Amino acid sequence: MKLDILAFGAHPDDVELGCAGTLLKEISLGKSVGIIDLTRGELGTRGSAVIRDQEASTAAAILGVSIRENLEMRDGFFVNDEKHQMEIIKMIRKYQPEIVLCNAIDDRHIDHAKGSKLVSDACFLAGLMKIETTVEGEKQTAWRPKMVYHYIQWKNIAPDFVVDITGFTDKKIEAILAYGSQFYDANSNEPESPITSKNFLESLNYRSRDLGRLSGVEHAEGFTVERYLAVNSLGDLI
Ligand SMILES: [Zn+2]
């Protein structure tokens, strides 16, 4: 199955927090979108890997993505080496996305920057035909996505461009709240963490409004890039 956009996250919920509005909008425009989670988020302060699996599949249904897979790398301890790169390369060649979205280049959680570089490096390597991969006995063909964009999650990184997600924020929050074990819950008896505060939950809305305010739209999500963005015409920009 070929996809237009493949979004990677170190943990289930990273993609929702970073770029769910953009994915919802692209799907509404007819694009096919998939999500690959690198780990099951088993070290998360609240919940468990099994609960996160269920939450991730509920969120995927809310978003309307075509596929969601989990590579079951070790939460907190996966590294950017050949073994892990090869796993990502196989996913990129399997789904042949034009665009890859991945974690923020720098963030509070160490897995985010690691996952960001791992996926980005694998996108480059996936295009080298002398790196051979086989899936279920079938040799894969080389594939390099046209663009790799990094979404923004915990830290306020200055975006290189933003996507207008006006009209998709309610659904975005719905997908995030599918991770009921992870975020603010006045009735929870589980330990607190930086992402369980009410402020964090509210920050999802105020950040998208602020990026929107600065861009002349109501709500926006920001991304950073690894090379200059090009447009055909100045009129392409909104
Ligand atoms: Zn994360």
From TrEMBL:
Coiled coil: none annotated. One of its GO terms (molecular function) is deacetylase activity. It comes from the Bacteria. One of its GO terms (biological process) is bacillithiol biosynthetic process. NCBIfam families: thiol_BshB1. It comes from Flavobacterium fryxellicola. This is Bacillithiol biosynthesis deacetylase BshB1. It holds the Pfam family PIG-L.
